[in-house]
Amino acid sequence: MTGMKAIRRFTVRTTVPAQISALTSLATNLRWSWHLPTRNLFESLNPELWEKSRFDPLSMLSALSREQLQLLAHDPDVVARVDSAQASLDCYLNEPRWYQELGAEAPQSIAYFSPEFGIADVLPQYSGGLGILAGDHLKSASDLGVPLIGVGLLYQAGYFKQSLSKDAWQQETYPLLDPDALPLTLLREDDGAPVLISLPLPDNRTLHAHIWRADVGRVPLLLLDSNVAENDDAARGVTDRLYGGGGDHRLTQELLLGMGGVKALRVYARLTGTAAPEVFHTNEGHAGFLGIERIRELMDPALTEHPLSWSEALAAGRASTVFTTHTPVPAGIDRFPRSMIEHFFAGKLAPGVPVHQILALGAENYDGGDSDVFNMAVMGLRLAQRANGVAKLHGVVSRGMFSGLWPGFDHEDIPITSVTNGVHVPTWVDPALAELARERFGAEVLDGPDWSKVYDVTDEEVWAMRRRLRAALVSDARRRLRASWKKRGAADAQLAWTDSALDPDVLTIGFARRVPTYKRLTLMLRDPARLKALLLHPEHPIQIIIAGKSHPADDAGKKMIQDLVQFTDDPEVRHRIVFLPNYDIAMARTLFPGCDVWLNNPLRPLEACGTSGMKAAINGSLNLSVMDGWWDELYDGENGWAIPTANTGTSEEERDDIEAGALYELLETQVAPRFYGEVVTMDAGAAGPSQPHDGALPAHWISMIKHTLAHLGPAVSANRMVAEYVQRLYQPAAEAGRLARANDYAATKEFAAWIDNVRPAWGGVHIEHVESHGLNDEPQIGESLQVRAHITLGQLRPEDVNVTVVYGTASDSDELTATRSLSLDSVQEYGPGRYQFTTELVIDRSGNFGYGVQILPKHGALANPAELGLITTA
Ligand SMILES: *Cc1c(COP(=O)(O)O)cnc(C)c1O
């Protein structure tokens, strides 16, 4: 080695001989990352190099020498296997799948925007759950044949790599990626020049970007890269790292993602002759400016013969936009100073689009809002006609959290639905488990809705598989532990103990995720002596494997890691509890399958969904979790354990005490004894555990594993999730979008004019009085009463409104529950602008019956009556 450092580094792609040239396309399409036969093919070519290149086909190909490649090319068996793998890929890319049965009405193309995508460890463009989810969304879309196009940024350093200092403080490094060495293809014009998209910035600067395409099975993912020669230094750095800087840097990233992303889609459609997206789905608020770019396109006289007005363009854009909110934690939502947005849009970024209207979209003009702030989530909701949270409970929480945008509405009527997240099964099921399923039941069983075949597997086989997965994790953990200690300054001579750290026969509990405070990494340390006793229990010990990165700017998170690692450093327990640095996809794929129990103890209800427990479940791990996110709707008593939540009103300290106490109690009296085959009664203290005879299997535990696989498998699959998005959100959005565009936007113009009329006139809508007739003193079920509402509509017409009676069971405080509603659709005008609305209401229940009357706007183009945030109640 010389002391010389390279001033420039680049990757030369291998030329693969013609006989096996398909290896290049097999290595470039990321389907290999979840398609076991393709991985096996690469491994078989050279197992040693496969391991050395960290299971990255492209890197392995470039590491093969010309001679080795020639040898492979002249081996008829290799050639045949490469051909067959390529045929399988071609078939996968072209054959009709689930989506192709939906018919011609299904959207031609759907754009999916996200600031991060976690697809494979070779493409580290994610920080946590949001990115992994986006990756899984693309993969399942591909498996289902959904014509999705992903849009994101290509970060030069991705997210940081984590290591620990001697005193257990998180260290961050940002190794630069070379796009040429990644499974990416640069998008080029027909003449071969790289496509360049541009965004005008303030002070006459321009931000340029190249577009890289990753192929995720059938789904192209376009990644914008500002590291191009045409840019000044600052502009080159825009895509330097994921969630790097704040302020201007972050805003420029998001402008590039949203506005640049739409421009990239336009170029892609032009170059490939494919359909323009009919639906735009934004994964969290970061990409929200895509809505502004689409409004700009519709308003720009240079682009269309008949430019639309602001209101028309907004209505047209909203019709085909879907917004997904992902977090109830304020720190997870991007907010910018209003003045910064004003500064950026004052220039040529969106000529013709009124800046005050853009500012209004992100305004927190509600109780508790900050008038100096521009809120990306709020803009997301205002720019999308359809919105959702990511689990049922998160839907409830989001409707409450954003209720300020719909003043006067009951929270349950706020138009934010929920689609529970899922995980891409072929990516997250352990290969050993997948092989077993395939051998026994055929290829489809883990892709399909029927997982109950697991009941045909014997207890012995299940238990042997669990041990195998646990042992694989233990050996991976030992390797990582040793490497981490070496990084922290230990010498090899001091590290012999790591070879026997952890035990492949001890109940293994996993906890790995990002480390924001609400996820409470250190809850388990609440009573260190009690934790120690659990770890070292003579009959039923537990061992815990922990991992997670803290955001570089979050010292509270780093302190939690430090506290935890310092506990694990104790020689008394270090063989039973370990922290593994640099949590990423590669680690996760061994971790989930290897754990018997997956632990999650966030502060309820701050975990929007959480997906790591789902990944554990599809591998037969049992969940032990606070009733938050997905677990709140899918825990059923036999698939794991629920950690009870302290009552609201307790202080944070008390809450942690109570919930940690409950966690210890569960581990001590339920989880550990059951794992070791003791018969556990719910009333643990009373009977005392009975010891199993030697070699007996823990029958109850194994039945819980089978139950988990059979019931949770299909429910947590990303195929279920993507199908729901298609049916409940994409299809309606595409239909609304088509109606909006038809006849040169005729319906949009009418709808926008209607909104512009209804909004200011709504103040004139009043319920003067409501009366009912026809009930005697002792009303009976089945009798009816006539409800009459006298209403002033001011400038509006009766057909502009829906007057409804909302009825239900009335509480002592007159709160209505179990409500239903009925339109008052018989109308009589009794004075200028004054109407009587009437209906017959049948009493459908006994007990305290109550009703109220409300008025909502009515128009065929409204996706939801609450959409405009206008309501009048009696
Ligand atoms: C699944 C996953 C996450 C998300 O975990 P949560 O428990 O949902 O927060 C984060 N990082 C990696 C590497 C994952 O695989």
Automatic annotation (TrEMBL):
Entry-annotated residues carrying N6-(pyridoxal phosphate)lysine: K615
Segments forming domain DUF3417: 16-123
Similarity comment: family membership: Belongs to the glycogen phosphorylase family.
Any matching Pfam family: Phosphorylase
Signal peptide positions on this chain: none
Protein name: DUF3417 domain-containing protein
Annotated Gene3D superfamilies: Glycogen Phosphorylase B
Reactions this protein catalyses: [(1->4)-alpha-D-glucosyl](n) + phosphate = [(1->4)-alpha-D-glucosyl](n-1) + alpha-D-glucose 1-phosphate
Keywords from the UniProt entry: Allosteric enzyme, Pyridoxal phosphate
Single GO biological process annotation from the record: carbohydrate metabolic process
MF term (GO), any: glycogen phosphorylase activity
Database matches in InterPro entries: Agluc_phsphrylas, Glyco_trans_35, Glycogen/Maltodextrin_Phosph, Glycogen_phosphorylase_DUF3417
